[in-house]
Design goal:
- It is a single chain.
- By secondary structure, this protein is an alpha/beta fold.
- The protein has one domain (8-177, 209-231, 244-254): Alpha-Beta Barrel (TIM Barrel).
- 39% of the residues lie in helices and 15% in strands.
- It has twelve helices and eight strands.
- It has helices at 22-31, 36-39, 51-57, 84-89, 100-105, 110-122, 135-139, 143-154, 182-200, 220-224, 241-248, 250-254; strands at residues 8-12, 41-45, 64-67, 94-97, 126-131, 164-168, 208-212, 231-234.
- Strand 7 (208-212), helix 10 and strand 8 (231-234) form a beta-alpha-beta unit.
- Bound molecules: phosphoenolpyruvate.
Length: 256
């Protein structure tokens, strides 16, 4: 946690979710109602096909809805893509950019991720910018070098705490059930915090740094308690309302 920073618990549904999944979304929307929502922000990023209907399902809830990717352009001949303006038009308030699956599956570079984040900010959509080392990079002792490069090259100069969130997601921890040790998470987040402050001065003190990679109800409290961990980006465990809410509620004790 970071003093005076409101954590964000975010779910990334990836390419999962049909209309029937809206029941889970509704349950999450109901579950995050209550006093904890003043202290902890919650977000689900369903697939683009459910974006508009998802925002309609949670109008009475503090749960925010976001998208998983956007194009760098506002509109145009880009078959299959969606723009940040379209996300805003569906009442989406966040977009994930630079997820490792996009970096790998679509060969997205840091420069492209940065341009996507810039497009999001221009459309008044907050960007969750994902960074993280691969297993090979960690074994080679390159973790902090990779984080330094990705943070420098993927994050726009106009980043502010209200509009940009960093998600540190070790690639080898995503969907594997593996997590780094608490000491490794602490080291990575402390490094990122120092880099953010060096680049964005006092604003860098409150830019949220989420941890992502096999966050589950059973390990969330320990991970969220680590210094400079300002919430979670959750893949698999965000698909079930019960699991997402258990992770969200780990803040009940942490913030008591
Ligand atoms: C993710 O894809 O962002 C992620 C963290 O997935 P999981 O929680 O399933 O590891």
């Amino acid at each position: 946690m970071t003093p005076d920073v409101r954590p964000l618990v975010a779910g990334n549904w990836k390419m999962n979710g049909l209309r029937a999944s809206l029941d889970q979304l509704k349950a999450i929307g109901e579950g995050v109602k209550g006093p904890l929502s003043d202290k902890v922000e919650s977000l689900i990023c369903p697939p683009a096909t459910l974006l508009y209907v998802a925002t309609a399902v949670v109008t009475e809830s503090p749960l925010a809805i976001g998208a998983q990717d956007c194009h760098t352009a506002i509109s145009g001949a880009h078959t299959g893509d969606i723009s940040a303006e379209m996300i805003a038009d569906c009442f989406g308030t966040y977009v994930i950019v630079g997820h490792s699956e996009r970096r790998t599956d679509h060969a997205e570079s840091d420069a492209l991720v940065r341009a996507k984040a810039e497009a999001a900010l221009a459309a008044d959509v907050a960007a969750i910018i994902c960074i993280g080392e691969t297993g090979d990079e960690r074994k080679a002792g390159q973790t902090l070098d990779v984080l330094e490069r990705q943070l420098r090259d993927s994050v726009p100069d106009g980043a502010t705490a209200a509009r940009v969130v960093i998600a540190y997601e070790p690639v080898w921890a995503i969907g594997t059930g593996l997590t780094p040790s608490a000491a490794d998470v602490e080291e990575a987040h402390a490094f990122l915090r120092a880099e953010l402050i060096a680049r964005f001065s006092s604003e860098g003190k409150s830019i949220r740094i989420l941890y992502g990679g096999s966050v589950k109800p059973g390990n969330a409290a320990d991970l969220m308690a680590i210094a400079n961990v300002d919430g979670a980006l959750i893949g698999g465990a965000s698909l079930k309302a019960e699991d997402f809410l258990a992770i969200y509620r780990s803040y009940e004790t942490l913030l008591a």
